[in-house]
Structures are given as structure tokens and as C-alpha cells.
Write a structure and sequence with these properties.
Blueprint lengths: L1 H65 L11 H17 L2 H19 L6 H18 L15
Length: 154
């Protein structure tokens, strides 16, 4: 009977020690996995934030340089047109599909107006410009933006 009790205690003791070791190893491994997941999530958030900042910078430069097409007397300034083309190329890399499609509509109007001055009313060009800025604003993190940009000139 003593042997049975001793063997039973040895079995329970060995299972308990193994259980404690397994529990400790599981806890250690779980902590490593959790740390890796947290670090991966931090890196993704940082990357997303950097991309958003970059996109906003590109959109700002593009919006400023698009204005040249609203004033007919400035269309002759080739340096302004070149700056627009540079900004447009950069935006094409960073912009969402919605922004690209809105920009395409704007560019079509400008090309039509440039080929035949007066063929596109100024208000239509301004509306296309405002639509572009609104699309850029939404793509820059203001997804619920409802107010459309009002073109102001003095």
C-alpha cells in the first residue's frame, strides 16, 4: 500500500512539475508573440502615418500649382505649367483612384480650354478644380468631408 501511495505521489509530482514548466514556457512564448505582434502593428501605423503625411504634402503642392489653369493670363507662364506637371506626376504615384479620375476630368477641361480658348466656361473649370480639391481632402483623411471647396479670387 505504501508503494501505491508513493508511486501515486511521484506521478502527481511529475505531472505538476511538467505542468508548471509547460505553463511557464507557454507564458514566455505568448509574451514573445504578443511583443512581435505589437511591434508589427506599431510599424504599420507609423508607415501609414508617414504615407498620409507624404500624400498631404503632394496634394498641397498639386493644388497650389493647379491654380495656374484658373487664370487665363497665367497659362503663358511655362514655369508654372512645369511645376504643375511635376506635381501631377508625383500625385499620380500617391493619389487614390478617385483623385486620379477627378484630376483627369479637370485636365480634359483644361486641354479643351487651351486648344480653344473660351470653349469651357470659367465656372466649369472652377467647379472641376474644387472637385479635385474635395477629392484630395477626402483622400487625406477627412473621409466624411461634405463641404466642397469654394474657389476664391481677388
Amino acid at each position: 500500500m505504501e508503494d501505491v501511495i508513493r508511486i501515486t505521489l511521484l506521478i502527481i509530482g511529475s505531472i505538476g512539475s511538467s505542468g508548471a514548466i509547460i505553463l511557464g514556457m507557454s507564458n514566455w512564448l505568448g509574451k514573445i508573440w504578443a511583443d512581435r505582434l505589437i511591434e508589427r502593428e506599431r510599424a504599420k501605423l507609423k508607415s501609414d502615418e508617414e504615407a498620409l503625411v507624404r500624400k498631404r504634402d503632394v496634394y498641397t503642392k498639386l493644388a497650389i500649382n493647379m491654380r495656374v489653369f484658373l487664370n487665363s493670363h497665367e497659362l503663358t507662364k511655362s514655369d508654372r505649367r512645369e511645376k504643375f506637371l511635376e506635381a501631377y506626376d508625383e500625385a499620380y504615384i500617391w493619389a487614390s483612384q478617385d483623385v486620379i479620375e477627378t484630376m483627369d476630368k479637370f485636365i480634359e477641361l483644361i486641354q479643351e480650354h487651351t486648344a480653344m480658348p473660351g470653349s469651357v466656361p470659367e465656372q466649369e473649370r472652377r467647379d472641376a478644380y474644387a472637385a479635385c480639391l474635395h477629392a484630395m481632402r477626402k483622400d487625406s483623411g477627412h473621409v466624411h468631408s461634405k463641404q466642397c471647396y469654394r474657389v476664391a479670387s481677388f
